[in-house]
Design a protein that fits this description.
5-stranded mixed β-sheet, alpha/beta, 5 helices, Purple Acid Phosphatase, chain A, domain 2, 6-stranded mixed β-sheet, about 200 residues, single chain
């Protein structure tokens, strides 16, 4: 039986440098009084990195993120250092009784990851939170075999992510990447899989 107050989260991604989206979501985070913000990649474009994190911090919200396939790993490190936020790539954090871990990037694009590397990074992050009562996995890419994979002919799901999902069984997987599947929610095993997209989603866990 899970105990304790539920954690209220605003999850979003795929801004692609649109500051207006970030500002709107930051207002929502404040009005909904969320505990933290999870951003799951493709937040910026390499030539436009300003303005998409700051609005959340101005609302005094804690931000965790992973990068997407439109950001290099170097850009992600820059964002983490500049804003003082936590990059969940191969990393895990404990927030109350919830463990949050993730893997950025994707199996296409900048700094393309091999499937086994995606699995290994998620395993590394999970090690830091494996004893937690509740767990959230955050990725940019979606899992292979998911319903949302069918929304695109060329953006394939990740087999490494699916392997990690089956092994670690998080309560929630937050992903994005396939814009056409934004807002789709499905169940894989006992895990809620959410493509949150730029519209974002308030979740409780």
């Amino acid at each position: 039986m899970k105990t304790g107050r539920k954690l209220k989260i605003l999850a979003a991604g795929d801004f692609h440098g649109d500051v207006g989206i970030a500002e709107k979501l930051a207002e929502q985070a404040a009005s909904e009084n969320v505990d933290l913000v999870l951003l799951n990649g493709d937040l910026v474009e390499e030539e436009k990195v300003e303005g998409v994190i700051g609005p959340f911090l101005k609302k005094n919200k804690r931000v965790f993120f992973v990068h997407g396939n439109h950001e290099s790993l170097a850009t992600a490190h820059f964002l983490a250092d500049f804003y003082g936020i936590t990059h969940l790539h191969g990393y895990g954090v404990k927030y109350g009784n919830v463990g949050i871990f993730g893997c950025g990037g994707a199996n296409i694009g900048l700094d393309q990851l091999a499937e086994e590397e995606i699995f290994s990074l998620l395993k590394e992050g999970h090690e830091k939170v494996k004893g937690m009562e509740r767990k959230i996995m955050v990725t940019h890419v979606h899992p292979a075999g998911s319903h949302m994979e069918k929304f695109s002919e060329w953006v394939i799901g990740s087999k490494g992510l699916k392997k990690a999902l089956d092994m670690f069984k998080p309560d929630i997987l937050i992903c994005g990447h396939v814009h056409e599947a934004e807002g789709i929610e499905e169940k894989i095993g006992n895990t809620r899989v959410l493509n949150v997209g730029k519209s974002g989603k308030i979740i409780e866990v």
